Amino acid sequence: MSDLVESARPAPTTPRALALGQLATRYGLLLILGLLLILFGALEPAFLRPGNLFSILLSVSVVALLALGVTVTMAAGGLDLSIGAVAAMSLMISSYVLVVLDWGTTAALLLALGGGALVGLLNGWLIVRMRIPDILATLGSMFLVLGLQLIPSAGNSIAVGMTLANGDEAPGSFPPAFLALGRARWFDLIPVPVVVTAAVALVIWLLLERTRHGRLFYAIGGNEQAARLAGAAVGRYRLLAYVLSAVLAALGGILLAARLGRGDVSSGNSLVLDALGAALIGFAVLGARKPNAFGTLIGALLIAVLLNGLTMLNAPYYTQDFVKGLVLVLALVFTFGFARERR
Description:
- Strands 1-2 form a two-stranded antiparallel sheet.
- A hairpin with a 3-residue loop joins strand 1 (about 185) and strand 2.
- By secondary structure, it is mainly alpha-helical.
- The chain is built from 14 helices and 2 strands; from the N terminus they run αααααααββααααααα.
């Protein structure tokens, strides 16, 4: 009997296996990103041209903004599913203000960001005051916002010169100052949305990693009851997390509207899944095993590099979701599978 027990026990993990597991957990995703850049560059030399690399950064900037917002809510122990709807609402608000109301760039920015903040307050109120679970509350607000943003335009996209319900032509347009937010380039090379996303990522990183407030976010996410007993204002921090998430989503919607030059009702449909995927992949970067701004950026960039490279190699478009899912599964393996080997 003792022989059977001994044979059932797992073999002890060797120091070499532990070291390999630590390296895979910490640097695996960064290594995969580097290998992808080399592989796609070898198969298609145009992939590594500066213009294409900045195109990748531009394509991922909006998703990264939304993912950074999700990262803050995850740090506080929650999850915001309404970010895609908020981005779509912000896109439609800014387009409606500019094209239909003709109120100008400043009004469009303030109203779009304000609308996002209101959704964040609604999410926080439902979760903190009404004690509705995060996923259910933000799922409900997602459907609410998706329906609400279609009402002013009667479900139609908003474009310059469109015909209004009364038969008149829309009087406004997208001013150059607004379009510059999505189309201008610094030094004729770096897209403005990339600069905005990088600046926001730096602020979120500093907030979470270098301030007392960030430590409180992580403390609440780790053990809400213990954080409350230690004197943390749990409700306020969770409310702040959802407001920040919604405002960043609204900023992403503004940049998307400025890039498209129209209010497309279908533009925010896939943003939530891409943003969630980027935030979850970020858990595996540098072995963080927690929400973090740097990992989220790497996760978003990894997905963008994959999709851009596959597109340049003429891979079928219907394989994209499979690729995203595969990357997410690999990230989870690096985060939790190899980490288990170290125990």
